Amino acid sequence: MKKNILFIFAAGLLGLSTGCTDLDVPVESQYIEYPTSEIAQEAKLSDVYFHLLGTFGRRYMEAQSLSSDEWVGVSFDGDYYDNGTYAHACLHSYTPDDASIDWYENVTAGITKANNAIRDMGGNDAGKGVAPARAMRAFFHFILMDSYGDSPILDSIADEKTVIERKPRAKVAQFIADELEEIIPQLTEEVSQNTYGKPTRWMAEALLAKLYVNWPVYTASSVENYNAANYQNEKLGRVVELCDDIIKSGKFDLTTTQKSDINNIYRTKFLPTNGFEVKDFIYAMPYDAIKNKGFIYGRPRTWRKANTGTSYYGKQLSKSVGGNFSITPEMSDLLMSLSKDDRQEHVLAGTVYMFDPKTYAKTTTPWTYKGETVTLSKTITLVKEDEKLDVGNNVNGYNQGYKSVKWFVDDDDYKNDRNQGNDLPIFRYADVLLMKAEAITRGAAATNGETAQSLFNQIRSYVHAPSLDHAPSLQEIYDERGREFFDENWRRNDMIRFGHFEDEYGFHKKSFALANFDPRHRIFPIPTSVLNKNTTWKQNDGYSSSEK
Fold it and tell me: What is the pTM assigned to this prediction?
């Protein structure tokens, strides 16, 4: 368990009905003017900064990772079938009632909190004071637009009579871009323990670069009309400019200053001890198993019966585990494909070995269950080909598919309702390097003596993987992003941009009758609960059975 910055914030979610109206209306408050003290404003903003702890800690992750080629969500004789929410994501056969996509209102509640803070602190034109809240509001809009397509633009507080309308995805993307371009100069450039987990200039620039590198995706006439083979992007030069500003700041690099006994920089960055010491983290969500709860990645990624006796994490786990996530064979091949790569050490492939609970290093001692060494297979074999993705409720079933300890579990955290203290990076310096490399490869001019090859090889070098002796192709950049950002919630985004979301992987196979290849499923359906509250809205195209 780490000792990290603990942020205390108010609870309570506001619904979508409190979305937007004019910010210049009189503020009904016990204060004539909102307190301007640093403590008062920090309290107001902290509630905005860390609003999505729970969303990012589980359900958002399920939607992003299971719909990509990273994970398969299996069941064990129906155990963990959970009404198909995991299988539907894997097969791209989502329904509006799936729990894994039911976080729309949590995001809009975050927008409402940001709008309340902006209003109370003087409105959109209040300058530096409200810039952090506007950055978060832009980020929340990005999450909705990226995942659900057309979205409302909630740039102020609505009264109860206001009818909220969804705007075309391209307009939402432009709103986000305009907001970020305006406020970037107003945001702090400080990078310290004090700004960790909060919006800075660098966070906003990374978000804007991410928006712009996906610009053809977000501005396509419709979701299905984006064609990666015809990618044309007038924003590539701006992507390079934004990446250059972050690089030239000198505030980030690929390392970490946190203490660790593991001689592996990559693994160290994701341990339960991670935090502001990770120089690679431009923006992260800080978790703590007691006060900043919500990070529950270990439960589905840990072998099904690992809580029986001493787990391979080196400690007895106080709570049960799920074990229902298995790495797809295709991603397993990608992760293990290089002759040398430090990133492979988080993958449990074949024989499972014990880890030292103090150093987190892998030992040479095989881990056993009921006296038998546990050996994982890369392939995943179903008992029956149906949407339960059932592998059987036995050791053979538990061994189906490789696992990962990237998000290493410490029972001192896990015993608190299976929460973990691992902080979740959202924007990393490594991503900035690869976004710039991608932009150059797609046609942007190289700058500052950095080529796509030199940028790419910075990543390869720090993980001790073979360097490229040529300029990387787009396919090589795509593959490298899969290795570097595995299980960090960006794979679906990358797959769509590079044109691989409709590929075959896991059980998303054309031979599997229930798998869906409709390109309109690049975005999720609007949850039923949201449609029930917004009766003028139409369900996303491609989900006709739920259209209103």
Answer: 0.93
